[in-house]
């Protein structure tokens, strides 16, 4: 089973990298972009087939290591 | 007086930390490798700067989970003096020993220069050789020193006198223009609730010898010795 984890900065936390990317996109002529938020994508290859168990475990991984919940939110997708 | 320096792979300021502690305590610190699970009995523990684990995932995130940090957390709870500088500050926040987080500098640039800092609270075991309102000159060298915490946490830190250092200019002015890296409220260093753990981005250990260009950092290490003796 695969778990896909998206880690993004919380709303209200300034994202200077996202701002720089936004600025660069505007420089390339992409004028239709209102905002850019940059994050991380982490793909995990897991043992087992129990989706509920896997989700609980990946949530624990996010809380303990994959995300810093002071500044980041995360979402988990199983496939 | 005994001290220890914790060494993680990718740390590069350990020799500066060792020199500063040796100068202040008169004894060479014990260097403890990250894979150890036990610490020798010491009065002071320093987590030095560098790029532990190549800053993978987030600065300090991997080091914070290494075996030795459980022992460091126990010592923190027992009241031992713990100083985290630069990557050491990042590691202590990631380990939950200090609140907040260190984000990418607002300018997105790596900043390597000397900076002025205002001593906000001289009534701590880290700053007792300074006077509140003093300003000092320490080097900084970091890419991720932009201190963030929610406003409730910031208010609590300020209310409890736990903001120890703020970025300022040569006249001691603290304002958005003198904010080196975008840190909330110009914060450069904070202590924990019990007052025995300090995390700071600037490098006092690189301001202890006239050859460094200044010796303003000596009093920070003298303070530790004063408090522990």
UniProtKB/TrEMBL annotation, chain A:
Gene3D superfamilies: Phosphoribosylformylglycinamidine synthase subunit PurS. InterPro entries: PurS, PurS-like_sf. GO terms for molecular function: ATP binding; phosphoribosylformylglycinamidine synthase activity. Pathway: Purine metabolism; IMP biosynthesis via de novo pathway; 5-amino-1-(5-phospho-D-ribosyl)imidazole from N(2)-formyl-N(1)-(5-phospho-D-ribosyl)glycinamide: step 1/2. The keyword Cytoplasm applies. Signal peptide: none annotated. Its main location: cytoplasm. Transmembrane segments: none annotated. It is found in: Cytoplasm. One of its GO terms (biological process) is 'de novo' IMP biosynthetic process. Keywords: ATP-binding, Cytoplasm, Ligase, Nucleotide-binding, Purine biosynthesis. It comes from the Bacteria. GO terms for cellular component: cytoplasm. It catalyses: N(2)-formyl-N(1)-(5-phospho-beta-D-ribosyl)glycinamide + L-glutamine + ATP + H2O = 2-formamido-N(1)-(5-O-phospho-beta-D-ribosyl)acetamidine + L-glutamate + ADP + phosphate + H(+). Its EC number is 6.3.5.3. It is an enzyme of class 6 (ligase). Part of the phosphoribosylformylglycinamidine synthase complex involved in the purines biosynthetic pathway. Catalyzes the ATP-dependent conversion of formylglycinamide ribonucleotide (FGAR) and glutamine to yield formylglycinamidine ribonucleotide (FGAM) and glutamate. The FGAM synthase complex is composed of three subunits. PurQ produces an ammonia molecule by converting glutamine to glutamate. PurL transfers the ammonia molecule to FGAR to form FGAM in an ATP-dependent manner. Belongs to the PurS family. This is Phosphoribosylformylglycinamidine synthase subunit PurS. The lineage of its organism: Bacteria, Pseudomonadati, Pseudomonadota, Alphaproteobacteria, Rhodospirillales.
From TrEMBL, chain B:
It holds the Pfam family GATase_5. It comes from the Bacteria. The active site is at 86 (nucleophile), 203, 205. Pathway: Purine metabolism; IMP biosynthesis via de novo pathway; 5-amino-1-(5-phospho-D-ribosyl)imidazole from N(2)-formyl-N(1)-(5-phospho-D-ribosyl)glycinamide: step 1/2. Its EC number is 6.3.5.3, 3.5.1.2. One of its GO terms (molecular function) is ATP binding. The keyword Ligase applies. GO terms for cellular component: cytoplasm. It is found in: Cytoplasm. It catalyses: N(2)-formyl-N(1)-(5-phospho-beta-D-ribosyl)glycinamide + L-glutamine + ATP + H2O = 2-formamido-N(1)-(5-O-phospho-beta-D-ribosyl)acetamidine + L-glutamate + ADP + phosphate + H(+); L-glutamine + H2O = L-glutamate + NH4(+). SUPFAM superfamilies: Class I glutamine amidotransferase-like (SSF52317). Signal peptide: none annotated. Keywords: ATP-binding, Cytoplasm, Glutamine amidotransferase, Hydrolase, Ligase, Nucleotide-binding, Purine biosynthesis. InterPro entries: Class_I_gatase-like, PRibForGlyAmidine_synth_PurQ. The keyword Cytoplasm applies. One of its GO terms (biological process) is 'de novo' IMP biosynthetic process. Part of the phosphoribosylformylglycinamidine synthase complex involved in the purines biosynthetic pathway. Catalyzes the ATP-dependent conversion of formylglycinamide ribonucleotide (FGAR) and glutamine to yield formylglycinamidine ribonucleotide (FGAM) and glutamate. The FGAM synthase complex is composed of three subunits. PurQ produces an ammonia molecule by converting glutamine to glutamate. PurL transfers the ammonia molecule to FGAR to form FGAM in an ATP-dependent manner. Part of the FGAM synthase complex composed of 1 PurL, 1 PurQ and 2 PurS subunits. NCBIfam families: FGAM_synth_I, PRK03619.1. This is Phosphoribosylformylglycinamidine synthase subunit PurQ.
């Amino acid at each position: 089973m695969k778990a896909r984890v998206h880690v993004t900065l919380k709303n209200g936390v300034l994202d200077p990298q996202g701002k720089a990317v936004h600025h660069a996109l505007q420089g390339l002529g992409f004028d239709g972009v209102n905002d850019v938020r940059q994050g991380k994508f982490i793909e995990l290859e897991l043992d087992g087939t129990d989706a509920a168990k896997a989700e609980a475990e990946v949530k624990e991984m996010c809380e303990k290591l994959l995300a810093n919940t002071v500044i980041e939110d995360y979402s988990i997708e199983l496939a | 007086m005994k001290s220890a320096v914790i060494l993680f792979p990718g740390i590069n300021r350990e020799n500066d930390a060792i020199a500063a502690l040796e100068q202040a305590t008169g004894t060479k610190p014990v260097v403890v490798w990250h894979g150890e699970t036990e610490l020798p009995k010491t009065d002071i523990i320093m987590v030095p700067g560098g790029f532990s684990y190549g800053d993978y995932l987030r600065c300090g995130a991997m080091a914070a989970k290494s075996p030795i940090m459980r022992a460091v957390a126990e010592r923190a709870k027992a009241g031992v003096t713990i100083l985290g500088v630069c990557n050491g500050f990042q590691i202590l926040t990631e380990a939950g020993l200090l609140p907040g987080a260190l984000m990418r500098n607002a300018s997105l640039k790596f900043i390597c220069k000397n900076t002025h800092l205002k001593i906000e609270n001289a009534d701590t075991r880290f700053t007792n050789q300074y006077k509140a309102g003093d300003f000092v000159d320490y080097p900084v060298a970091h890419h991720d020193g932009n201190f963030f915490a929610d406003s409730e946490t910031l208010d609590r830190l300020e209310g409890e006198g736990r903001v120890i250092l703020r970025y300022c200019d040569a006249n001691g002015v603290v304002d958005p223009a003198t904010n080196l890296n975008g840190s909330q409220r110009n914060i450069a260093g904070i202590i924990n609730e019990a007052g025995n753990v300090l995390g700071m981005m600037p490098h006092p250990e690189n301001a202890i010898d006239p050859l460094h260009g200044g010796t303003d950092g000596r009093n920070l290490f003298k303070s530790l010795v004063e408090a522990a003796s």
